[in-house]
Amino acid sequence: MTSSEPVDGAAPVDLIGPNVRAAREAQGMSLRELARRIGVSPSFISQLERNKANASVGTLYALVDVLGLSIDQLMAEQGPGTEQPAGGRASGAPARGFRVDQPLQPAEGRARIQFPGVVWERLTQAADPQVDFLHVTYAPGSASCPEEDMMRHGGHEYGFVVSGSLTVQVGFESYAMTAGDAITFDSMTPHRLSNDGTGDCVAIWVVVGRRDDVRGHDVPVPPGSVTHLPSLSS
């Protein structure tokens, strides 16, 4: 198992490195300190910030929690003069009653992040401070994290399988989902998503209240561990 995956040839919108670096530097946090807090090596953070490595699903959640960002902020493309907020809710939006300027998100042009074997696409035109609303694709053999190191974070999750199959382990229970099945669970319960089938799984995934859930802010990370790296079966 390695702590990074090459991303040569990935579209610029898939690459979150500049946003991670901007948020870390805005908070005056060293590269080593960020690595220590999320339980990965400093070299992995260095590679990630230079777009030489790709974060996994679990690593992404650890990053946004430690840096105080939204997933949308990490997805945002940076250009000349773009300032990455140092933390808190996207663009300073309040937790309730934020304004929606662009209700429609066309099928083309979604903000996206690509993990090893997994693709997330945001289904809102702009950052939503209350909800992570995502179109997710799991390739055959991919998973959100290793079996021995399941994810947990703040919020409550809702998932709906559009096509293919997905195994969702929540605590000690495992659920085999196929097209049309839905699931909901407390995100603080250790959980893992995996595609054990032969074709892609496409699903709609929603995480509500992740950033406002203080339970997820102090999730312990084993010292020196490489947390939530995706496991890819051969």
Regarding CATH, which class of the largest domain? Mainly Beta
Number of domains: 2
Taking the sheet with the most strands, its summary is:
6 strands, antiparallel
Percentage beta strand: 15-25%
> How much is the radius of gyration in Å?
17 Å
User: Helix segment count?
Assistant: 5
Morphology? globular
Listing every helix as H and every strand as E from the N terminus to the C terminus, the arrangement reads HHHHHEEEEEEEEE
Please explain how this structure is put together.
The protein has helices at residues 17-26, 31-38, 42-49, 57-67, 71-75; strands at 112-115, 118-122, 131-138, 156-163, 165-170, 173-178, 182-186, 191-194, 201-208. By secondary structure, the protein is α+β, with helices and mostly antiparallel strands. It folds into two domains: 12-92, lambda repressor-like DNA-binding domains (434 Repressor (Amino-terminal Domain), Orthogonal Bundle), CATH 1.10.260; 112-218, Jelly Rolls, CATH 2.60.120.10. The protein has a six-stranded antiparallel β-sheet with strand order 1-2-3-9-4-7. A three-stranded antiparallel β-sheet has the order 6-5-8, with no helix packed on it. The longest helix has 11 residues, at 57-67. It is globular and about 45 Å long.
Task: Describe the structure concisely for a colleague.
The chain is an alpha+beta fold.
